[in-house]
Each structure stands twice: as C-alpha cells, then as structure tokens.
Specification:
By secondary structure, this protein is an all-alpha fold. Helix content is 81%, strand content 0%. It has four helices and no strands. It has helices at residues 5-26, 33-59, 64-88, 93-119.
Length: 124
Amino acid sequence: MLPRRWTVGLCVWTLIIWTTRISNIWNDEALSNGEKWGRTGLAVSFTVLALATLATLWRKARGGAVVLKALAGWTIGVWLVRSVGIATGDHDAAFVAVHLGLAAVSIALSVLAWREQGRAAPVA
C-alpha cells in the first residue's frame, strides 16, 4: 500500500484542478486584467501548497503536517465559499454540477488526507 495515498491524491488532484485553471483564466476574454491576476493568485496558492506538501513527503521533512493541514484547510474553506457562489450564481446546470462535483471530491480528499496525517507516526 502506498504510504500517504490520500495526501498524494489530494496533491495530484489539486495540481490538476488548479494549475490547469491558470491557462483557462488567461484565455478568458471576458475577464479584466485585475480579475485575471486575482484568480491566478488563488490558483497559484493551491499549486504552491500542493507542491510544498509533496516536497515534505518526498524529503520526509518536519513540518509536513502543518503544510498538509494548510492545504486541506484552504481547500475546504475555498470550496465551501465558492460552492455557495456557484450554486446561487447565474450559471447553467451543467456548470453548477461539474463545479459542485469538483468541490465534493476536493473536500473529501482533504478530509481523508487530514485524517491520514493524524494516524501517521510522529517524526522523532
């Protein structure tokens, strides 16, 4: 069994979802430059946290729990806020369904990774 499989899963999922979002942002002609930079900042924050979490796993570095919990907490918080905005916004049903599905998977992976971290043996 792969150690920390939920943590790795959360990181890979996060990189796929948020890093690919950056090109979508900059290809959206309806957004102003300010909106593009703001949304890019959010996507980059997820990318950095996911890469930092993977780096602490790879190097077995201290502080890995803190970085993972920052990623998981940020993921849960952002998706909860975004889900309300998406569900109540002026979007078609397919857009809402896809994004609420992304939110559900992201939150589930965050909870599983957080629990996995809690069960892990402490670093001596």
